[in-house]
Amino acid sequence: MLGLGGIGSGAAYWLAREAGGGILGLEQFELGHVRGESQDHSRIIRLSYHRPDYVQFAKLAYLAWAAVEADSGTRLILKTGGLDLGPRVSAIPLESYMQSMEAGGVPFERLDAAEIMRRWPPFRLSDDIHGIFQADSGIAMAARANAVHQSMAKQHGALLREHTPVTAIEDAGDEIVVATADATYRCGKLVIAAGPWSNRALAHFGLRLPLEVTKEQVTYFAPSDIRPFTPERFPVWIWMDDPSFYGMPVFGEAGPKVAQDAGGKPVEPDARSFDPDIENLKRVTDFLERRMPSALGPVIYTKTCLYTLTPDRDFLIDVVPSHPNITIAIGAGHAFKFASAIGKVLAELTLRGRTDADLSLFSYRRPILELADPPKTYMV
Ligand SMILES: Cc1cc2nc3c(=O)[nH]c(=O)nc-3n(C[C@H](O)[C@H](O)[C@H](O)COP(=O)(O)OP(=O)(O)OC[C@H]3O[C@@H](n4cnc5c(N)ncnc54)[C@H](O)[C@@H]3O)c2cc1C
Predict the structure, then answer these.
(1) How far is the CA of 74 from the centre of ligand 1 (A)?
(2) What is the mean pLDDT of residues 201-226?
(3) In 87, 257, 285, 369, which residue has its Cα 20 to 30 A from 168's Cα atom?
(4) Would you tell me the crossing angle of helices 142-155 and 6-19 to the nearest 10 degrees?
(5) CA of 37 to the centre of ligand 1 (A)
(6) What pLDDT is recorded for position 69?
């Protein structure tokens, strides 16, 4: 395993659970560090997706988390229900979400603005707004889930080494030689889950993908009354337009969390700052002033985090071309909910050479990934 963020920790867990010993995970920083993509208290998990293959994969995501919860005796998913809402004419039409869920047999409700405000009084909406509510959506407890994946991976026999950057990889065909500052490891298979550092890992094979790493941020607000925003009374929500915003009920801090999706600027993962982008925060507060004014209050804190974006915003989960013993996964800025399921799929590809999950749209060889400067579609 190269990388022990959200996906790598999931893969380490499933590899160790299936194979027992012989699993080594290497992480360049400390376990639980905040320099990548996967930390903070919460991430949205939902079945509501724009394509049927994601809806099917999201079902596997819930099953994978349930298996980890049962194995560890630790709760990782909190169902709050989820609301996707926006203008009837918008950059992210709800129709494809409804069609995908209908195709997958996922129940949901269509709501008009009046009904949304009746159920969740903090919203301030005009008549042109509509939404869909799906009851299984909720919070994946990100930092806790990573720690549980790591702890249970060790429990099942994996060796996880932190502060151990991989500095060189050589694929010799029958074995892969992985070098760190103080050791050389020879292994039969390698899984790469390097997040924002994916192109640095792929450079060992002379490969490069048209990825964009952006610095995103989330803000916790302290409204004067947090009670309407508790998980029992308020859903996770996504504003389906451009710009797109999303939020969580009170979880981890004493106030709701709100952010703009894909609203950050491109950065180099090793050279980026951790300072909040004030313009991004203003877009979020302007949105709340208009649509959810009672969520506003003093900023508890704004926390930055990275997205690794593929141009079509689809995942990459595949064997590395010409390297049949090496697999790679890239999360495209919406993969935490799938971290355990992707880890399971990577374990299946690694240990059995096949998986039943439909990965056809997450292929390394899809044409857009062969373009040096592809068109970008981040609003999905
Ligand atoms: C603000 C924000 C909000 C998000 N919201 C959601 C959401 O609501 N729902 C959702 O599903 N997803 C969400 N996401 C996306 C999701 O969190 C990511 O897709 C997912 O966490 C990616 O995990 P990863 O393991 O690929 O990356 P990372 O967690 O960054 O892990 C990669 C790891 O590899 C290590 N590494 C890299 N190179 C080396 C090397 N050479 N040697 C050793 N180690 C190495 C890194 O140090 C890092 O720990 C959000 C992301 C952000 C930033």
Answers:
(1) 22
(2) 98
(3) 369
(4) 30
(5) 3
(6) 99
CA 345 to CA 357: how far, in whole Å? Answer: 7
Q: Which of 45, 197, 216 to mutate to test the pocket of ligand 1 (most atoms within 8 A of CB)?
A: 197
Task: Using the predicted structure, report yes or no on whether residue 347 has a pLDDT greater than 90.
Answer: yes
Which 3 state secondary structure label does DSSP give 272? coil
Residue 218's beta-bridge partner residues? Answer: 259, 303
How far CA 240 is from CA of 90, 163, 285, in Å, comes to 7, 39, 17
Output the DSSP codes for 34-49: SSSSS-SS-EEE-S--
Q: For ligand 1, what atom is nearest to the CA of residue 164?
A: 43
CA angle at 139 for the pair 85 and 300, rounded to the nearest 5°? 85
Report the CATH number of the 6-370 domain: 3.30.9.10
CB atoms within 10 A of CB 73: 8
Tell which residue, 172, 170, 173, 148, has the closest CA to residue 160: 148
Per-residue model confidence (pLDDT) at position 283: 98
**Using alpha carbons only, what angle is made at residue 360 by residues 357 and 361, rounded to the nearest 5 degrees?**
115
The DSSP bridge partners found for residue 247 are 237, 258
- State the chain's mean pLDDT as an integer: 97
Binning the chain into helix, strand and coil, the percentages to the nearest 5 are 30, 25, 45
CA angle 355, 359, 361 (to 5 degrees): 170
Q: What is the pLDDT of residues 302-336, one digit of tens each?
A: 999 999 999 999 999 999 999 999 999 999 999 99
Q: Which atom of ligand 1 is nearest to the CA of 248?
A: 8
3-class SS of residue 85: strand
pLDDT of residue 21: 87
pLDDT per position as a tens digit, 125-168 = 999 999 999 999 999 999 999 999 999 999 999 999 999 999 99
Residue burial 34-53, b: 16+ Cβ < 10 Å; e: rest: ebbbbbbbbbbbbbbbbbbb
Give ligand 1 pocket residues (Cβ under 6 A). 2-8, 26-29, 36-38, 43-44, 165-166, 193-197, 201, 216, 218, 259, 305-307, 331, 333-337
Which tens digit of pLDDT belongs to each residue from 62-98? 999 999 999 999 999 999 999 999 999 999 999 999 9
- The answer, as to whether pTM is greater than 0.85, is yes
Domain spans, the chain: 6-370
